[in-house]
Design brief:
The chain is mostly helical and 268 residues long. The protein is 76% helix and 0% strand.
């Protein structure tokens, strides 16, 4: 949704027909995210309890609210894009919706990060860096996914798209990967430098049981960035592989975050 809304919100040149593809994948991903909330609750019959016994002071409840708003907004935004092409919605109205969609998209990832970051008892989670880091990871995953979907749709004949638009997305993906790795480096330094339990977390990642996921993230991110930045490598198949590698890199990062946060015991 960020990929689709930023050009319209700031009056920039977009990515051709990729914009609607981006919103459609956003809707699909959000439905999946809401489905996982239901899994966390144990069974679908408990969903009504969220609204009857909701605790508005809980970041988990913030996440559920922002996810529902995000899903509705994504659907409205997709409708507005299609209606604008038919002249039924003005470009000014579409731009306003784009700005709202952009803010909501950033909020989704920030609130999800706060679920972890506000847990002061967990060495690996309690950091103010987590919210911007989640947003940068979303940009990596989102751009990688849109590249893969757009390349597949174009190959199947469902989408007429110039290679220049895919290359434009690839350059963005490379930049997002570099930023995400930079945040990762900052987090590792902050954890390790004072010593203590933070250093134990970094040791666990670099050379301990989570090392395959740590080095997997680094290698996959660097490999994807190389494909994105080297002009001779920007062919459709390699760009799709770079998109997959970027998504897998963030998956490795998520495993480190979720599993790593429980490895250092905070109770004797």
């Amino acid at each position: 949704l960020i990929i689709s809304s930023v050009p319209k919100a700031f009056g920039l040149k977009g990515f051709g027909g990729i914009s609607k593809v981006a919103v459609m994948t956003s809707i699909a991903a959000t439905v999946g995210a809401i489905g996982f909330v239901v899994v966390d609750m144990g069974q679908p019959l408990r969903v009504w309890e969220l609204f009857v016994y909701s605790n508005l002071g809980s970041p988990l409840m913030w996440d559920i609210i922002v996810l529902m708003v995000y899903l509705i907004l994504s659907c409205v935004y997709l409708w507005a894009q299609i209606a604008a092409e038919k002249g039924k919605v003005s470009h000014t109205a579409l731009r306003v919706i784009s700005v709202v969609a952009l803010v909501c998209a950033v909020l989704v990832h920030s609130v999800t990060a706060w679920i972890f970051g506000l847990q002061q008892g967990r060495e690996m989670w309690h950091t103010a860096l987590l919210a911007p880091w989640f947003v940068s990871s979303a940009l990596v995953c989102g751009t990688g996914l849109v590249i893969c979907v757009a390349a597949a749709l174009r190959r199947a004949g469902y989408l007429a798209l110039e290679q220049a638009y895919l290359v434009k997305l690839a350059k963005l993906l490379g930049a997002f990967l570099v930023v995400d790795l930079y945040f990762f480096g900052c987090d590792l330094l902050t954890e390790a430098f004072p010593g203590g339990e933070g250093l134990a977390v970094v040791d666990m990642l670099v050379s301990g049981p989570l090392a395959p996921f740590f080095w997997g993230e680094v290698v996959l991110s660097v490999a994807a960035a190389v494909v994105c930045f080297v002009p001779s490598l920007r062919t459709s198949p390699l760009l799709a592989l770079a998109g997959v590698a970027a998504i897998l890199a963030i998956l490795c990062k998520r495993v480190q975050l979720l599993v790593g946060g429980f490895q250092v015991a905070n109770i004797d």
